[in-house]
Amino acid sequence: MAGLCEGGNEPSGSLKAIVIALWFKMPHAVAKPFGFTERMEEVQVVVVGAGAAGVAAAARLMERGVKDIVILEAEERMGGRIHTVLFGDAVLDLGAQWVHGEVGNVVYSMANRYGLLTASETEIIESPYIESTGNVVNSDIAEKIMGILTLIHKAGDVLLKDFKASLGQYYNAVFQRKMEEEFSTSHSKLGRYFLDWFQKFENSIDGSDSWFETSGRGLTEYWDCEGNLLLSWKSGGYRRVLDLLMVCINCTLSVEPRFSCTIKS
Ligand SMILES: Cc1cc2nc3c(=O)[nH]c(=O)nc-3n(C[C@H](O)[C@H](O)[C@H](O)COP(=O)(O)OP(=O)(O)OC[C@H]3O[C@@H](n4cnc5c(N)ncnc54)[C@H](O)[C@@H]3O)c2cc1C
């Protein structure tokens, strides 16, 4: 059986953050819960966060025989940026939704062996763009602005290698210049809408509130895995990843995370 619990396979791909599992070894006393210490408790390992990385770390440790683990989670649910909710008879992913690519993508490797994935019919680029007023944006103009954003994104591979400022500073500076080259002074308001939307898109990938808080150079560390970039789950939504991570060849993750526990630095 599956995935991260098989020894030695380092995860990679769009969930590469998994390898930066937020666990650390505390051979002696830790507080329970942190910040509200009434009594001390000894555990071998504290895993901070019950997102995919934390669950993967705990499962891998358990599979290798470490039983004395506690997972502390700030929220009241598991999953972190994976957040699948019920929506009528279906499920809705409020966080991660697609499996982006196949080669070197640990999520693909885990899910595909059980036939859990299917090609998505979604084509983001060809969707119409609609302003908050309900006005449908002229498709030629939308295409040009999206072209500028795509160009800036691709140029980042080179331009951001030694860039010292934030992702937001990079996009704002280059976008403004490219918009003026393309449209002179027209469509500047529409351009800002698109830039704002694009910021939200980037923030959702980086897990940040603002792209002025994320490193510009960090964009160069992201890569696309080969294969279908928009695979979706046949059923159950992205939450299935957590199920896959928790069920290992010799262990079922039996550690119930302690919720509403925020670790303070
Ligand atoms: C809207 C959105 C859409 C996305 N779409 C996709 C997609 O389609 N495909 C894809 O592959 N990826 C997608 N992603 C990215 C993917 O969800 C993340 O890369 C992945 O879930 C990150 O997992 P993680 O465990 O590293 O971090 P997180 O999911 O952020 O988990 C970290 C956990 O640690 C907890 N925590 C943090 N600090 C503390 C603390 N001090 N004390 C206690 N607990 C703490 C948090 O509450 C959280 O539960 C998307 C993300 C978002 C937000």
TrEMBL record:
Pfam families: Amino_oxidase. Gene3D superfamilies: 3.90.660.10, FAD/NAD(P)-binding domain. It comes from the Eukaryota. Residues 53-204 form the Amine oxidase domain. InterPro entries: Amino_oxidase, FAD/NAD-bd_sf, Flavin_monoamine_oxidase. This is Amine oxidase domain-containing protein. It comes from Periplaneta americana. The lineage of its organism: Eukaryota, Metazoa, Ecdysozoa, Arthropoda, Hexapoda.
